[in-house]
Design brief:
Layout lengths: L1 E6 L9 E5 L8 E10 L2 H8 L8 E2 L3 E9 L11 E5 L9 E5 L3 E3 L6 H21 L7 E4 L5 H12 L3 E6 L2 H8 L5 E4 L5 H8 L5 E6 L13 E9 L13 H5 L4 E3 L3 H4 L3 H16 L7 E6 L3 H9 L6 E5 L1
Parallel strand pairs: 9-10, 9-12, 10-11, 12-13, 13-14, 15-16
Antiparallel strand pairs: 1-2, 1-4, 3-5, 3-7, 3-16, 5-6, 6-8
Helix pairs in contact: 2-3, 2-8
Length: about 325
């Protein structure tokens, strides 16, 4: 028996229970691993609250790193003792040990620590598809990213800057603005004291940006559309303030034939080759020093409910780990 954070009913952080669970032997195509760290991500709150509905009871957590302790039949490229990381379903990283499909994990290279991996796999691969595939950032682009001081935001700012972009970010405080400035952002807008549409137009001399990356959702919609230049792309990849409400598609016409996409990491890494390619691109940019991964907060795994409360209260910045 091992300990894990599990919910039986959707709701607030108080629904998270520190319980013992049984973890069996790996079946065909599976591995068993001992988690050394789990990453905290906003999507975890969607699973806990029931915004994203999943079968119950449920061990939370999509992101983690650890050491392989057993392999099932048919697993050829992963062996006992390998350090591995993952950021995908099935959920279960909020656990001391777990089973995982072997084709959903990647072996960690030298130069990437377990804690780095657990703090960057989901956020870093999200940043990877955003900057390289959802909208391929080119030198000279000016782009807007909401929640610049968050986990994805700090990775995104560095990566976008390394690709030659001028990077605009929104934040909710002066402290968060100063933090984001250290991670590649050229312009920071405090949305509590400034109108971000007006500031974006000022920074771009009225042109607007070709892409807005938005993990906030309801609170930044539809003002974000007003930041886009004609044919611009709204990449709405999260709902930290709540889901984007239904909208009339004709508003995209009046704002300049705009595009909207709702990308997910699940889709961008659905194929094994895409998962490995995304992870390797992340490992390479981190090992090169162009993107630095710093863990800003750690909590004991048993205190995951407090970590969720702090995340939802916007008390955290950057990457947060839960340690078994």
């Amino acid at each position: 028996m091992v300990h894990a954070i599990r919910i039986h009913t959707p709701g607030g952080p108080e629904m998270m229970k520190w319980e013992t669970i049984e973890v069996g032997d790996p079946g065909p195509g599976q591995i068993r691993l001992k988690n050394t760290a789990a990453g905290l991500n906003y999507i975890d709150t969607y699973h806990r609250s029931g915004l994203y509905k999943l079968p119950l009871p449920l061990v939370l957590g999509m992101e983690g790193a650890g050491t392989v302790t057993a392999v099932g039949s048919g697993v050829a490229d992963i062996k006992v003792g390998d350090r591995v990381a993952y950021a995908s379903q099935p959920l279960g990283s909020y656990s001391e040990e777990r089973l995982m499909q072997a084709d959903r994990v990647v072996v960690l290279p030298d130069g990437i620590t377990d804690q780095q991996a657990a703090g960057m796999m989901l956020k870093g691969m999200t940043a990877e598809y955003l900057v390289r595939r959802t909208y391929k950032i080119k030198p000279g682009d000016t782009v807007l990213f909401h929640a610049a001081a968050g986990g994805v935001g700090l990775i995104f700012g560095q990566w976008a800057k390394a690709l030659g972009a001028t990077v605009i970010g929104t934040v909710g405080s002066a402290d968060k603005a100063e933090l984001a400035r250290q991670y590649g952002y050229d312009h920071l807008i405090n949305y509590r004291t400034e109108n971000f549409v007006e500031r974006v137009k000022e920074i771009t001399k009225g042109a607007g940006v070709p892409v807005v990356y938005d993990g906030v959702g309801k609170d930044t919609w539809p003002a974000s559309l007003d930041c886009l230049q004609p044919f611009g792309l709204m990449a709405s990849f999260g709902s930290a303030s709540g889901p984007v409400p239904p909208f009339d598609v004709n508003i995209l016409a009046g704002r300049g034939s705009l595009y909207v996409t709702r990308p997910t990491l699940v889709t961008y890494t659905a194929k094994r080759a895409d998962l490995v390619g995304s992870a390797n691109a992340l490992f390479d940019v981190v090992k090169s020093g162009k993107v630095k991964i710093e863990i800003k907060q750690t909590y004991a795994l048993k205190d995951a409910a407090q970590a969720h409360a702090d995340l939802e209260a916007r008390k955290t910045t950057g990457s947060t780990l839960l340690l078994p």
